[in-house]
Amino acid sequence: MAGRSVPVVILAGFLGAGKTSMLNHLLRRNRGVRIGVVVNDFGAINIDSMMVAGQVDSMVSLSNGCLCCAVDTEDMDGMLDRLVRPDSDLDVVVIEASGLAEPHNMIRLVRASENPRVAYGGTVLVVDAAAFGDTLAQHPEIGRHVGLADLVVLNKTDLVSDEVVLDIRELLREFNSRAPVVPVSEGRLDAALLFDAQRPTEPSPGEQLTLDRLLAEADDADESHGAHHHLHEGYTALEFTSDAPLNPRALVSLLEDRPEGVYRAKGFVHFAVPGQTRKFEVQTVGPHIRFVSRRWDAGEERRTQLVVIGVGVDEHDVLTRLRGCVVGDEPADENAMLGVHRYTVAM
Ligand SMILES: Nc1nc2c(ncn2[C@@H]2O[C@H](COP(=O)(O)OP(=O)(O)OP(=O)(O)O)[C@@H](O)[C@H]2O)c(=O)[nH]1
Question: How far does the centroid of ligand 1 lie from the alpha carbon of residue 69, in Å?
Fold first, then answer.
């Protein structure tokens, strides 16, 4: 007896659009819904899973590559089988794709599952209102991603004017006239839109046709380009770990003078400053820098872990510059945190 099926929702969106922020918001406002998540990060250190951990009913995390590249369905099947088995008692599974994933491949992988408890529950696309224009210009294939969405969350509306929000809505409509577009900030999507909407567990016949057609178009597009083109081609992720603390002033000036090609950085930092006892989450998306002050868990090793993602990044240069932020014999002075505080937001 297979029992009831569990909708599997794909949460997609370009690097730094706000997927993890939205997932964390939904996990906090889960309305009693038990949520399992699959977190896929592009870098070898799965920063996303660290940012989601602790709030979720069940999690599988996958790092160092894109889930969309799984050559066969076995990887995905294995993960979904674990999450939807009856004793996990989940109501919904959310797959947070890496910021460079191809949503149509993810959809295909979920829909190919032979587990009768797995039901494709639709695709939610998070769009960064401040970056969308540039991202689309650089990666026109993102338009196709918009076309696959069942719901578009237009995030970071705090960073742009109302006119820009309207313009982006128009632009999004050109690629997808069927999906609702919901403007939000900080990923604060009303959980009812996802969990109470009573989506059909399988797409309705009309939707299915549309989706199949879109997938077929995506395949055609791939073929017409000769090779199977992925958004993440050209992007590299590098990791930096340090047990020795970092000088906040040096790190802030590195982030402000971002190395060429770097688009995204994220992780946790251990600063060495007298009287400073907090762990700092750091995130950059394009020119935007953000720190969040966090607490070290009991017994957690004081360590810096960063992932840096970009195109044509000079890995040696970035790592050398990061190593240059490690505190030497001279500890940083108390005022060294001022730069960090300038970019610190209360969460
Ligand atoms: N100003 C502003 N910043 C936001 C908003 N939503 C998210 N952020 C910040 O943007 C950064 C990236 O957000 P994430 O939620 O990690 O983005 P993501 O899509 O999961 O990123 P990747 O998984 O790396 O692709 C973080 O510093 C967030 O705090 C928003 O609405 N406004």
Answer: 24
50, 68, 285, 343, best to mutate for ligand 1 pocket (most atoms within 8 Å of CB)? 285
pTM of structure? 0.85
- Which one has a higher pLDDT value, 165 or 217? 165
Collapsing DSSP to helix, strand or coil, 283 comes out as: strand
In terms of Cβ atoms closer than 10 Å to its own Cβ (0-12, 13-18, 19+), residue 163 is: exposed
What tens digit of pLDDT does each residue of 263-308 get?
999 999 999 888 889 999 999 999 999 999 999 999 999 999 999 9
Domains of the chain: 6-232 (3.40.50.300), 235-342 (3.30.1220.10)
pLDDT digits (tens, 9 = 90+) for 195-205: 754 444 454 54
The residue to mutate among 20, 168, 309, having the most atoms of ligand 1 within 8 angstroms of its beta carbon, is: 20
212 versus 12: which is more confidently predicted?
12
pLDDT mean over 3-14: 90
Protein residues with CB under 6 Å of any ligand 1 atom: 13, 15-21, 48, 99, 155-156, 158-159, 185-187, 264, 266, 283, 285, 290
- How many Å lie between the centroid of ligand 1 and the Cα of residue 82? 28
Ligand 1, residue 157: give the atom nearest the CA. Answer: 31
Asked if the model's pLDDT at residue 116 lies above 90, the reply is yes
Residue nearest to atom 2 of ligand 1 (CA): 156
Cα distance between residue 258 and residue 252, in whole Å = 10
The alpha-helical segments, DSSP class H, found in the chain are 19-28, 47-52, 74-84, 103-111, 132-138, 142-148, 162-175, 191-195, 205-224, 248-256, 315-323, 338-342
